[in-house]
Write a structure and sequence with these properties.
The chain starts with a strand and ends with a strand. The protein is about 35% helix and about 20% strand. The longest helix is centred in the N-terminal third of the chain and has 25 residues, at about 65-90. It contains nine helices and ten strands. Bound molecules: uridine-5'-diphosphate. Uridine-5'-diphosphate binds near residues 52, 71 and 132. Uridine-5'-diphosphate binds near residues 11, 77 and 136.
Amino acid sequence: MRYERVLIKLSGGAFSGGAESSINRTAVDGLVEEITSITKLGVQVAIMVGGGNIFRGRLADDWGIERAEADNIGMMATVVNSLILRSALTSHGASEVRVMTAIPIATVAEPYIRLRAIKHLEKGYVVVFAAGIGQPFVTTDYPAVQRAIEIRADAIFAAKQGVDGVFAEDPKRNPQAQRYAEITYDEVVAKGLNVMDQSAFILARDHNIPIHVFDASDRSAMRKIAEGEPTGTYVGHDAVTRLIDS
Ligand code: UDP
């Protein structure tokens, strides 16, 4: 196996699967299938859950509300998704799933305690991180990288909705845009490419934690990446920058 311990960043969009309702049963079942496919291989899995399918802090201006409050609402949205994920994983037979929240909600989930999270992972439990880092003015990208470093994950699996990697141009604007098979951190920065929020990306680069970007709806992507089969885009210091057909 290429990795022993990974942190999966699941955007809220992965819970809606592009559908109109914010949470789509088929999309969630697909995520569970994918996650289970790598836990069965013995990979230790932590998951940072987003909330954009329900609410994002950047909607503050549209709603005429304070940003810090909008971010609180966004964080609670991640808690909703985390509980859905825990239930879905459990009902599909996952032995132990622990939701650890950065905002205390004692009757619903455990508080985030770094060493406890690591203990859970060592026992093979799936650990779901809710509420990001519990502070406003960030999305879940930065907390994903922060927690990945804290728990000593070997890599970050960044599941994207509707794109299967890092592209030379925006594939939604130019359908001919080419995808990178691999790219270095420095090239991502130099070319201004969008992998995750800039602050998150820089943190990953500075701590040399590799990032795999892939399509959340590709049911075999996580297993292939865990087994070392090239899938999506690999970002890392040791990457050899190249487009997919070159
Ligand atoms: N959020 C926050 N602090 C955190 C993590 C998340 O304030 O540590 C808020 C922020 O408003 C963000 C929202 O929660 O927009 C939902 O997370 P995100 O936008 O990352 O969801 P995704 O885009 O992954 O679906």
